[in-house]
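Q: Can I see a sequence and its folded structure?
A: Here is a first one.
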Amino acid sequence: MDQLISAGVQIVVLSLPAAVFAWRRRSSDARKVLGLTLGKPTDYWLAVVVTALVGAVSLLATRSIPADVLAAAGSANRITSLAAGAAVLLRATSEELLFRGFLQGVIGARFGRSVGVWTQAVLFLLPHLLLLALSPLLWPLLPAQFLAGLCLGWLRSRHDSIAPPILAHGVTNLLAGLTI
């Protein structure tokens, strides 16, 4: 249950920049910049492809880490209950709201789509660098995180919606939490 409370706090905190941006703009333009649309049904098929790609790369990265290191570092992300699964989905949603919604949307609107995609991918990698504090042997996860940021950013950019990236990110994290 603590994981669910923590994830709830995270979604509130990480969605604050987008909420402030939307409140200050108070227009449909803000929704478009933030990617707050559902997208088209075909967008979700590409989310499945992105999930498979990111999931495969993440699995390969995970398999290159010694089992004892992975077990010690991954125990907090293991899904052992419905609440833990819900927490994983809330965390993925909050990361999408901040990185692909707010950061990519605002940067992309100002400097162009590709700058938005690349910048948010680099910024998405930064908090994941904390994995190295757990163990330097977790470094193979970092290229996988960067690739995930690029793929999810591309998906958001292509469809002007954060809904498909939320789906892809959530499913990828659920699968990771079930297999750690």
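Q: Show me another, different protein.
A: A second, unrelated one:
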Amino acid sequence: MRRAELFGIPRVRPWSWQAFLLGFASVAVSAAIQGICVALGAKLYFAAFVPSIFIVGILAGAPAAVFAALLTIPLVWWAFMPPFFEISPLTSADADSINLFFLLAVLLIGLADLCRATRSIVRRGGFGPPGKSAA
């Protein structure tokens, strides 16, 4: 009997150039979305970037997600923290926002890595010996 596909999303090899390109593209799209949110009056600096870090972690692996998170921090500091489009000394609140984003990014990257590992275990047929299915 053919098993139904549980996860219909494609994967990218973790250390490939496509993975890092996906990380860069997700940061660019998130920056555009964050720019729209700022234009509408939102003051949450990292709101659009958090889901993209998780999605990159699931699709492209932890290295690309770490790259995206590390690219996000100076981008937000430069483009979305006042004064806009200028690197200035961080206020205490801005430093706290960056620290909170960094903590959340580490947790989301770990969760995405666990999701990728679970997906490969499920695809292999579980923890049992090879050749025997759990179902």
